[in-house]
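Example (one chain per record):
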Amino acid sequence: MTTEAAGLLRVVGLMSGTSLDGVDAAVLETDGETIAGFGPRSYRPYTEAEREVLRQAIGAARGMVDRADRPGPLARAEAVVTRAHIEAVRQLLRENGLVASAAGDADRSVRAIQLLGLHGQTVLHAPERRLTVQIGDGQALADETGLPVVFDFRAADVAAGGQGAPLVPVYHRALASRSGLPRPLAVVNIGGVANVTWIGADDDLAASDVGPGNALLDDFVRSRRGQPFDKDGGLACAGKVDHEALASLLAHPWFGRSWPKSLDRNAFDPAAVARLGDKDGAATLVAFTAAGIARGVAHFGGAEQVVVVGGGARNPATMASLRNILPAPVVRGDEIGWAGDFVEAEAFAFLAARSVRGLPLTFPGTTGVRRPLTGGLLARPRQAVASAAARRRST
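Predicted structure:
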């Protein structure tokens, strides 16, 4: 363990979710166990052309058998993702007067960033085949920013027989402790996929993906209206739930699998709503998301409070559906002082700090792995490594 890793680190976490909207970047000051402070945040959206490259890569990834392969569409997509992350880091540093300090300079007066946590873009998640693929070149990001990068967070867990998701629960627990929230607590993250973290009275953790998040609805709206998502829940709020279609969606065999479990963004087929109009189809898909979340919270034993974060928290139709179906009070993360849209980016800053300290990222109750397990790979800037070697040779 390095000296700087043993204390507080100022880390930029980077998240590119399955909704394919863009790159979230957030600064966190942490030792990987507690949260010492929050820093600035920024967002670098993908262009529609970039999203199309990513969609092609997700389609091409379905047949992958080796996670290191990068057939044509995936190679193009990895270049897009890497470039977007480099731009996101540079934008965050430039706009907030931050500087890169690969040597671990902890001088607060220069507002030094010491580490990056790169989740990358998931193009395939198939833990039943012990395969998960996140694209984004960690070494290139380190070389271009001059900062060490922790990346490939999920692979070790999946290789050990875990689900590789969700990864954020240990950060949710740190947030809940900092905020003094009641227990048991459920934290619901609605990205492309929805997952639930359950935090018990003794701070014990349980978690799982619970069903679709935004991806199914986004794809439906894009196919019907040519829009990237249902802005402000306008379609869903104006529609009516088709209960026959909802029952068909909830009959998917994934819901019968043992817990914890995880999902690929394309696990569900929207064919059940194909006969519905735009508004009723959107309303039914929102109800599907809410029903999966409610089943997850109930599976873990209920909660005193439910906190919702991620893009789905900004959809009034989704929030209304959750408040209607869940017996506990439901609040958005930003209503209690959390950076709702940036919680996952903050989480990968937190996980990067844990990784360099050798602390576990996943647990039997969160991914089904047999024992608590650390993860992530560390890429150091090659220029910094070469300079250090030259200094050693000269002494």
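Caption: Confidence is low (pLDDT under 50) at residues 1-6.
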